[in-house]
Amino acid sequence: MNLAFVESPVQLLNVLEWTHAMGGGDPAATTVVVLPPVDPMSRGQLRRMAELARDEGITVRWQEARGESGAPLKALRALTGLVRRADHIVIGDPFSRYVQLLLTLVRAPRLTVVDDGTATMEFVAQLARGERLVRWHRRGSKGPRELVLAPVTATARRRFTPTANRTVEVFTAMPVQAPPGIKVTANDFSWTRTRFGPPRISKGADLVGTSLVETGVVDPVPYQEAVAALARAHGATRYFAHRRESAEKLHALEAATGLEIVRPDLPLELIARRGPIGRTVLSFPSTVVHTLPLALAGTGVKVAVCDIAPEWLRDTASPRAQGFLSGVTETARDVQRLAPWRATAVTAEG
Hints:
By secondary structure, this protein is α/β, with parallel strands linked by helices. The protein is built from 13 helices and 13 strands.
């Protein structure tokens, strides 16, 4: 039995891509456990993705593990039997403390990590460097919670190391250099292209939002100025909000730029593939600069990326933030990089 754990819509999309890339087989042999976050937009997208997974014949189990007191332990007890019976574990977020806790129960001889966006790049890099697993936008300080969970994280990290009795695979659309012994399988979004589109292409441009403000990396003022300048320069009319962007920020963007704010009910790769979509899609460094060219292959839609200027970063941003974001842009294939002067001009134009 294949047992997958997902916590975001993109992770569930990539489980569907992985199942398709593996040749389909018997969909009933795969069970996806959804561990939903608390924010309403993520939960809504996850419910829509769960419907698509069920349409493919996959069993989907919705398991609350957050929010209520005692929910994590209750979910752990409910899932222990499933985890121990599974032959193949598939996970979408190796940084998730809850998934790491579940991994301490794993006996399966096969483990696959599917994309959780650009975080996959940092995950593989940390494995290669032998570092502990820390999300790139966090400073990595060892607070009381981290110290308590350190043994769990260490055990989970060992699960990502291939042995004579366990294979490890990374299924990804990102450019990664995996450590020896880890198999890398390319995700080309063939399931998405098969099931959706081709899209109707509209004139002008669409702009893709980012949650870099919400994660404490980018200051909201230069971000709003950059969005306004990009919209003016490229004739963008719509702003596709990231599911974690705050309502307050989006209201301010709408008032300042006149852009139509769109809150997608599915991951952007599916929204773009269904259409309509602008002839140019503008983005800041994010997952979509790697995935949209694959999902929209052959449609003629161009993806352009605007770098994050160092002066946009907040004082509280991780020291790794600038290098990581630059790496996301520099390694993207089949995208138009906006000239460095334009990224600088965006800051000044505001």
